[in-house]
Amino acid sequence: MSIINTTSVYEMVEKQVLTSNLQIKLASFTFNYGEVRVYAKRDQQGYISMTIIVDNPGKLSSAINTIIFDKQDDGQMTFKLFWPKETFPAIADTILVNKSLDSFWQTVYKNLVSNNIWQNSSESQLQNNVITSNNQSINTDKPIYPSYLRKRGGKLVSPRQQAKILQFISKKSMWRIIKRGFTVIFTKNPLRARSIFIDDFDVVDDEAN
Q1: Model pTM?
Q2: Can you list the positions of beta strands (E) in the chain?
Q3: Residue 71: pLDDT band by 50, 70, 90 thresholds?
Protein backbone atom coordinates (compact mmCIF):
# COMPACT_ATOMS: atom_id res chain seq x y z
CA MET A 1 0.00 0.00 0.00
CA SER A 2 1.47 3.35 -1.08
CA ILE A 3 2.01 6.18 1.39
CA ILE A 4 2.47 9.82 0.44
CA ASN A 5 3.48 12.92 2.36
CA THR A 6 0.32 15.01 2.61
CA THR A 7 1.59 17.84 4.80
CA SER A 8 0.86 20.37 2.05
CA VAL A 9 -2.70 19.02 1.74
CA TYR A 10 -3.24 19.28 5.50
CA GLU A 11 -1.86 22.82 5.56
CA MET A 12 -4.10 23.86 2.65
CA VAL A 13 -7.18 22.35 4.28
CA GLU A 14 -6.30 23.91 7.61
CA LYS A 15 -5.96 27.27 5.88
CA GLN A 16 -9.31 26.88 4.14
CA VAL A 17 -11.37 25.95 7.18
CA LEU A 18 -9.60 28.09 9.76
CA THR A 19 -9.63 31.33 7.77
CA SER A 20 -13.29 31.07 6.86
CA ASN A 21 -16.35 31.93 8.92
CA LEU A 22 -17.85 28.74 7.49
CA GLN A 23 -16.64 25.47 8.91
CA ILE A 24 -17.10 23.36 5.78
CA LYS A 25 -15.32 23.65 2.44
CA LEU A 26 -15.79 21.63 -0.74
CA ALA A 27 -13.38 20.68 -3.52
CA SER A 28 -15.13 19.19 -6.56
CA PHE A 29 -13.55 17.74 -9.70
CA THR A 30 -13.80 14.81 -12.13
CA PHE A 31 -11.73 11.68 -12.59
CA ASN A 32 -12.28 9.51 -15.64
CA TYR A 33 -16.07 9.63 -15.94
CA GLY A 34 -16.65 9.91 -12.20
CA GLU A 35 -17.44 12.89 -10.02
CA VAL A 36 -15.27 13.46 -6.96
CA ARG A 37 -16.22 15.67 -4.01
CA VAL A 38 -14.00 16.25 -1.00
CA TYR A 39 -15.47 17.96 2.06
CA ALA A 40 -13.21 19.47 4.70
CA LYS A 41 -14.79 20.17 8.06
CA ARG A 42 -13.64 21.74 11.31
CA ASP A 43 -15.57 20.68 14.39
CA GLN A 44 -16.08 22.63 17.61
CA GLN A 45 -12.92 21.14 19.12
CA GLY A 46 -10.90 22.36 16.14
CA TYR A 47 -10.30 18.92 14.63
CA ILE A 48 -10.28 18.65 10.85
CA SER A 49 -12.00 15.77 9.08
CA MET A 50 -12.20 15.06 5.37
CA THR A 51 -14.90 13.11 3.58
CA ILE A 52 -14.42 12.02 -0.02
CA ILE A 53 -17.37 10.93 -2.15
CA VAL A 54 -16.95 9.34 -5.59
CA ASP A 55 -19.97 9.01 -7.87
CA ASN A 56 -20.40 7.09 -11.09
CA PRO A 57 -23.46 8.83 -12.59
CA GLY A 58 -23.74 6.36 -15.45
CA LYS A 59 -24.18 3.40 -13.12
CA LEU A 60 -25.83 5.29 -10.26
CA SER A 61 -23.17 3.93 -7.92
CA SER A 62 -21.27 5.76 -5.25
CA ALA A 63 -18.90 5.24 -2.32
CA ILE A 64 -17.48 7.20 0.59
CA ASN A 65 -14.00 7.24 2.06
CA THR A 66 -12.25 9.42 4.63
CA ILE A 67 -8.84 11.01 4.29
CA ILE A 68 -7.06 10.08 7.51
CA PHE A 69 -3.83 11.95 8.23
CA ASP A 70 -1.05 10.13 10.08
CA LYS A 71 1.11 12.54 12.08
CA GLN A 72 4.79 11.59 12.14
CA ASP A 73 7.40 12.35 14.82
CA ASP A 74 8.74 15.29 12.79
CA GLY A 75 5.27 16.82 12.46
CA GLN A 76 4.84 15.77 8.83
CA MET A 77 1.49 14.33 7.74
CA THR A 78 1.18 11.18 5.65
CA PHE A 79 -1.76 9.34 4.12
CA LYS A 80 -2.20 5.74 2.96
CA LEU A 81 -3.52 5.47 -0.58
CA PHE A 82 -6.29 2.92 -0.32
CA TRP A 83 -10.05 2.52 -0.43
CA PRO A 84 -11.95 0.35 2.09
CA LYS A 85 -12.69 -3.04 0.57
CA GLU A 86 -16.25 -2.93 1.89
CA THR A 87 -17.38 -0.13 -0.45
CA PHE A 88 -14.69 -0.35 -3.13
CA PRO A 89 -16.67 -2.55 -5.57
CA ALA A 90 -19.24 0.24 -5.99
CA ILE A 91 -16.71 2.56 -7.67
CA ALA A 92 -13.81 0.26 -8.61
CA ASP A 93 -14.21 0.73 -12.37
CA THR A 94 -14.36 4.49 -11.82
CA ILE A 95 -11.09 5.01 -9.94
CA LEU A 96 -8.93 2.07 -11.02
CA VAL A 97 -6.40 2.76 -13.78
CA ASN A 98 -4.35 -0.23 -14.92
CA LYS A 99 -5.39 -2.02 -11.73
CA SER A 100 -3.92 0.76 -9.60
CA LEU A 101 -5.27 3.61 -7.47
CA ASP A 102 -2.12 5.71 -7.86
CA SER A 103 -3.47 7.85 -10.70
CA PHE A 104 -6.67 8.54 -8.80
CA TRP A 105 -4.92 9.60 -5.59
CA GLN A 106 -2.39 11.71 -7.51
CA THR A 107 -5.32 13.59 -9.06
CA VAL A 108 -6.92 14.02 -5.64
CA TYR A 109 -3.65 15.33 -4.21
CA LYS A 110 -3.07 17.75 -7.10
CA ASN A 111 -6.54 19.23 -6.70
CA LEU A 112 -6.53 19.51 -2.91
CA VAL A 113 -3.35 21.59 -2.81
CA SER A 114 -4.89 24.12 -5.21
CA ASN A 115 -6.15 27.24 -3.48
CA ASN A 116 -8.62 28.00 -6.29
CA ILE A 117 -10.63 24.79 -6.21
CA TRP A 118 -12.11 25.23 -2.74
CA GLN A 119 -15.59 26.66 -2.37
CA ASN A 120 -18.02 27.23 0.48
CA SER A 121 -20.32 24.42 1.52
CA SER A 122 -22.63 23.60 4.42
CA GLU A 123 -23.43 20.90 6.94
CA SER A 124 -26.76 20.20 5.27
CA GLN A 125 -25.13 19.78 1.85
CA LEU A 126 -22.56 17.38 3.29
CA GLN A 127 -25.20 15.34 5.13
CA ASN A 128 -27.47 15.15 2.07
CA ASN A 129 -24.62 14.00 -0.16
CA VAL A 130 -23.60 11.33 2.35
CA ILE A 131 -27.19 10.03 2.50
CA THR A 132 -27.45 9.99 -1.30
CA SER A 133 -24.11 8.21 -1.66
CA ASN A 134 -24.99 5.58 0.94
CA ASN A 135 -28.24 4.86 -0.89
CA GLN A 136 -26.21 4.09 -4.03
CA SER A 137 -23.40 2.20 -2.30
CA ILE A 138 -22.85 -1.16 -0.60
CA ASN A 139 -21.96 -2.39 2.90
CA THR A 140 -22.74 0.99 4.45
CA ASP A 141 -23.64 -0.69 7.75
CA LYS A 142 -20.00 -1.65 8.39
CA PRO A 143 -17.89 0.30 10.94
CA ILE A 144 -14.95 1.14 8.67
CA TYR A 145 -14.09 4.76 9.55
CA PRO A 146 -11.68 5.68 12.40
CA SER A 147 -13.54 7.84 14.90
CA TYR A 148 -11.93 8.14 18.35
CA LEU A 149 -9.62 6.57 20.93
CA ARG A 150 -10.81 4.46 23.83
CA LYS A 151 -8.97 3.08 26.87
CA ARG A 152 -8.45 -0.67 26.43
CA GLY A 153 -8.77 -1.52 30.11
CA GLY A 154 -6.02 -4.11 29.87
CA LYS A 155 -7.59 -5.93 26.95
CA LEU A 156 -5.36 -7.00 24.06
CA VAL A 157 -5.81 -5.55 20.58
CA SER A 158 -6.60 -8.49 18.32
CA PRO A 159 -4.61 -9.11 15.11
CA ARG A 160 -7.81 -8.38 13.17
CA GLN A 161 -8.20 -5.00 14.88
CA GLN A 162 -4.52 -4.22 14.32
CA ALA A 163 -4.90 -4.96 10.60
CA LYS A 164 -7.91 -2.66 10.48
CA ILE A 165 -5.99 0.17 12.14
CA LEU A 166 -2.99 -0.34 9.85
CA GLN A 167 -5.16 0.40 6.83
CA PHE A 168 -5.04 4.05 7.89
CA ILE A 169 -1.85 4.68 9.86
CA SER A 170 1.70 3.38 10.14
CA LYS A 171 2.74 0.50 12.37
CA LYS A 172 4.73 2.94 14.50
CA SER A 173 1.69 5.15 15.05
CA MET A 174 -0.47 2.14 15.85
CA TRP A 175 1.92 0.84 18.48
CA ARG A 176 2.19 4.31 20.02
CA ILE A 177 -1.57 4.17 20.52
CA ILE A 178 -1.57 0.60 21.86
CA LYS A 179 1.38 1.07 24.22
CA ARG A 180 -0.35 4.03 25.83
CA GLY A 181 -3.36 1.87 26.60
CA PHE A 182 -5.70 2.90 23.80
CA THR A 183 -7.36 1.36 20.80
CA VAL A 184 -9.11 2.95 17.82
CA ILE A 185 -12.89 2.82 17.67
CA PHE A 186 -14.45 2.71 14.22
CA THR A 187 -17.83 4.03 13.11
CA LYS A 188 -20.16 3.29 10.21
CA ASN A 189 -20.97 7.00 9.97
CA PRO A 190 -18.39 8.81 7.78
CA LEU A 191 -19.46 12.11 9.34
CA ARG A 192 -18.00 10.93 12.65
CA ALA A 193 -14.64 9.95 11.17
CA ARG A 194 -11.49 11.97 11.76
CA SER A 195 -7.73 11.70 11.98
CA ILE A 196 -6.60 10.53 15.42
CA PHE A 197 -3.37 11.86 16.86
CA ILE A 198 -2.25 10.05 20.01
CA ASP A 199 -1.02 13.30 21.52
CA ASP A 200 -4.64 14.50 21.57
CA PHE A 201 -5.55 11.78 24.08
CA ASP A 202 -9.14 12.22 22.97
CA VAL A 203 -11.08 9.58 24.89
CA VAL A 204 -14.81 9.49 24.20
CA ASP A 205 -17.49 7.71 26.19
CA ASP A 206 -18.97 4.89 24.10
CA GLU A 207 -22.46 5.87 25.21
CA ALA A 208 -22.10 9.16 23.37
CA ASN A 209 -21.31 7.47 20.05
Answers
A1: 0.88
A2: 3-5, 24-31, 34-42, 48-56, 61-66, 70-71, 77-80, 118-120, 145-151, 182-187
A3: confident
